[in-house]
Design brief:
Elements: E1 10-13, H1 20-50, H2 57-83, E2 90-92, H3 93-126, H4 131-134, H5 137-163, E3 172-173, H6 180-185, H7 192-223, H8 229-257, H9 267-288, H10 291-309
Parallel strand pairs: 1-3
Antiparallel strand pairs: 1-2
Helix pairs in contact: 1-2, 1-9, 1-10, 2-3, 2-9, 3-5, 3-7, 3-8, 5-7, 7-8, 8-9
Amino acid sequence: MEQENSTVTEFTLLGLTESREIQLFVFVLIFSFYMIVLPGNLLIIITIRSDPALTAPLYFFLGNLAFLDASYSFIVAPKMLVDFLYEKKTITYQGCITQLFFLHFLGAGEMFLLVVMAFDRYIAICQPLHYANIMNRQVCYALLLALWIGGFTHSIVQVALIVRLPFCGPNQLDNFFCDVPQVIKLACTDTFVVELLMVSNSGLLTLLCFLGLLTSYAVILFRVRGSSSEGKSKALSTCTTHVIIVFLMFGPAIFIYTRPFRTFPADKVVALFHTVIFPLLNPVIYTLRNQEVKSSMKKLVNRQVLCGVE
């Protein structure tokens, strides 16, 4: 990535907190969390790919959700954990731009995937007779390709706006990773127009997707109100799971990107959950409420244990 408009070669990260005790506590917490939850996400992917019974679009998208979330969790957390061990925390200009790119690339991809999953559930519940024809394999792959392209387009716009800014002096980022709000503040120029474009690109898009998703699930529940008790219960369980994930994903993003880029006391805590904690929890929450995946997962684990014993 070229650095034509910048004399800054690296940024200093101020980190999550200056307290060594709190840093140690967060380090142990996040490291333990990763050792427990990250293998769970990998198990979800392996289970869905290895079980022929889990070939429905729902499981195809769930496997991709687990992959996106696991990938997303590697953007910030590993460097954050390493930085906890050092007094001075730095990141190169190129490293900062790269981190920012993948953060928005995978984050937007996951956001679009949740929209696709909502569409899938709408067709499955509201038009069950046409579901197999509408959500065939070609359509699923086309939707997956579209969300990857959408995530790339969203992210490359962010990066294109950032690299055009001059960075000629201050280089302290008041955070534990590189993101648009903090990086823009260090530019040696008036950034009002850029901030407006960023809010429109990230904030408005996030808010519209969030409201659209909530509306879609409300429509689904309205459509199944006259169904049998079993059908209504299954639809309610599915929608509840999706809505939980939507709030976990979109709540922090709306807080961060739909307002002017000003510092608030809760910013770092929200960013921690948004970039480290919630991504790994999303597929796990979904899986815990899905009996088919849990059953297949138990069978897979039992087979591996038996093979190990033999």
